[in-house]
Amino acid sequence: MKKILFILLMSFELYAGSQMCDSGKVAKLLSDDNTGIRHQRFIIKLSSGQSLLIAHNIDLAPKVDSLKEGGFVKFCGEYENNAKGGLVHWTHRDPHKHHVAGWLEYNGHRYE
Prior knowledge:
This protein is mainly beta.
């Protein structure tokens, strides 16, 4: 039992709140979250089949205006696990330098 618990804790530490860089196809564009800090939101599908919600802070980084469903996005940000596959946020620079700088890349342009 202790080994199982240790493995579960190790898995949690490796993924929750850690930096994730990958790429995927835009599966669905969602409406921007304009409550409080504004975020551009969309779902991508990784090559592994995993779905991720990308929440890109558009108060600190430029919005990806040309983003289309079916488009290919490269990203780097902070991963949080959830029942729907996960969430990636902090896809921009942190003005307070408490987080590793993240980014989105779409059609050869980097948004950070």
